Amino acid sequence: MMDFHPRKRIPFSMASKYDMPKPPEEDIYILPDEYTYLSRSKRAVMFKSQRNEKLNVETLVVVDRKMVQNHGNENITTYVLTILNMVSALFKDGTIGGNINIAIVGLVLLEDDQLVGCDRVLGSSAMPDVCGVCKGNNSTCKMFKGQYNKQHYTNQYHSVVTIPAGARSIRVYEMNSSSSYLSVRNSYHKYYLNGYWTVDWPGRHTFSGTVFNYKRPYSQPESLTATGPTNETLVVEILLQGRNPGVSWEYALPKSDGDKKMVPKHNYTWAIVRSECSVSCGGGQMTTKAACYRDLRMQVNISFCNPKSQPVTGLVSCNTQACPPSWSVGNWGECSHSCGIGEQIRQVLCTQKVYYNKMETVTDTKCTQPVPLRRQTCNPHSCPPAWSAGPWSECSRKCGKGLKKRTVVCKSTNPIPRAQILPDSSCLAEPKPKPQESCMVKRCQKNRKLQWFVSIWTGCSVTCGKGIQKRLLNCAEKDVAGKYKQLAPKRCHHVQKPAVQLERECTLAACPRLVTHTVTSSARAGWYSSPWSQCTVTCGGGVQARSVQCIAHGKPSSGCLLHQKPVMSQACNTNFCPEPEKKDEAGKYSGCFLCVKEPAENILGIGLDDSVMM
């Protein structure tokens, strides 16, 4: 469907007249100071047109195959006539010189997609040359080409090339992809594309009398092309972001001015357009904007007028007189009761707007309207009974987990001097609050102390010759009574283990030689163990050891099975030691209560705050 938006061009021969906007009826047009000598009637004549003249336009309409498919062969003629009647009606107001009657002298339906050449012949492939001449040979103009490769500071605009007015076949493109942007402005520093540190969307941009096609593909160089001709001098710039990728440019200019047609010179003048005032009293604002008019008749783009003489625009004060006094009411406050009839109030003042939303309070007598209500009743419905919980009692324990209690009863909630206590069955609609719950004022302090304890050395693993001695590293906790209780080793994982040796060699007297004749020749090899040695401690966990040897024919042998070898050591006296009643020689080791009844030089105790003592 054809688009007739007033800011877009339409495919008809009179489209240029369609672009001429009609000033809004509510706008007020004020001429600049150079026209103040004209009388009001003369000013009005300058904006009038001859309404009695009629203009008949004969039109040849060409409809392509796509439009025929959308509307059908039978309805396409009616559709075209309807659209042209709508276009013709737009010019009946006489703002462009008179009535226009559009008559269709021919309707061509294209069965196949056919091109229309620059010679306006259907099916023609005629193309204009770079000079804009249909079927030309590029001989009437001169091409200008160049490259811009200079490096500058980033985040700044830098001029690439100045393109004179009348240029055609304009092409500007980056030589490599970059994060920079191509920009276009005129000689008066008015930007049309990517100006003022803002980036425009890629696409078709109309300015300076032609259409520029701006392309910015992803991860590819930017390009800017236009058929021309331009009606003003343009300056192509690059908004540099990083390193300059290099910019190539080219355009064509006519070789001589002799063939140029004389274009009538027009007079372009600024005018001021004012909007309506934002308020009717109390000080408002109206917006003023500058408009450019050609020959005081037609509004055109502001680029045609001299920017140096552009009038100052912006917001202007209007209707500054004070407004009549009126009542100002605030929001209703909260109801005094949620049920059983309450009351709510609001603020009511007589105010007057004097200037720019400044409100002044005046006496109530100046407001002639009836006084709005200041009080009203609210929530008249009866109140349902509800649970009433008293304050919590103190916690039953000063530390640790205790219990606190409170009184919970069912009461009526109507606003009477004294609430009535009701049976609990009246409040069954709501869950009853807990009358008691657990509490804890603070945690009770725990006098606990975890530490590692090292036992004394065990007896030598052999009864003669060389053997080994061992000792254990145990985790224990000191209870309130000061006694130590052995715990699993993982309980002391946060306590650093002492760097002590838990195994060492020991040497006893040489073993006696075995008498061979005491064992018969028929004896087989077997394990022989000595009696258990005395336990290393009397309490707190010790070790017993014995000697185990493989004997065959009265001599040491290796013919015994290892998995049948008896154990050489075992735990003994694992009961805890009682707390010493008085300090003895072992009591001088602070923090060490797992002691054995052995000479002092064999005792070793290690605690959290103790050092290793040997």
Automatic annotation (TrEMBL):
<dbReference type="GO" id="GO:0031012">
    <property type="term" value="C:extracellular matrix"/>
</dbReference>
<dbReference type="InterPro" id="IPR050439">
    <property type="entry name" value="ADAMTS_ADAMTS-like"/>
</dbReference>
<dbReference type="Pfam" id="PF05986">
    <property type="entry name" value="ADAMTS_spacer1"/>
</dbReference>
<keyword id="KW-0677">Repeat</keyword>
<dbReference type="GO" id="GO:0007229">
    <property type="term" value="P:integrin-mediated signaling pathway"/>
</dbReference>
<dbReference type="GO" id="GO:0004222">
    <property type="term" value="F:metalloendopeptidase activity"/>
</dbReference>
<dbReference type="GO" id="GO:0030198">
    <property type="term" value="P:extracellular matrix organization"/>
</dbReference>
<dbReference type="GO" id="GO:0005576">
    <property type="term" value="C:extracellular region"/>
</dbReference>
<dbReference type="InterPro" id="IPR000884">
    <property type="entry name" value="TSP1_rpt"/>
</dbReference>
<protein>
    <submittedName>
        <fullName>A disintegrin and metalloproteinase with thrombospondin motifs 16</fullName>
    </submittedName>
</protein>
<keyword id="KW-0732">Signal</keyword>
<dbReference type="InterPro" id="IPR036383">
    <property type="entry name" value="TSP1_rpt_sf"/>
</dbReference>
<dbReference type="InterPro" id="IPR010294">
    <property type="entry name" value="ADAMTS_spacer1"/>
</dbReference>
<dbReference type="Pfam" id="PF19030">
    <property type="entry name" value="TSP1_ADAMTS"/>
</dbReference>
<keyword id="KW-0401">Integrin</keyword>
<dbReference type="GO" id="GO:0006508">
    <property type="term" value="P:proteolysis"/>
</dbReference>
<keyword id="KW-0964">Secreted</keyword>
<feature type="domain" description="ADAMTS/ADAMTS-like Spacer 1">
    <location>
        <begin position="145"/>
        <end position="254"/>
    </location>
</feature>
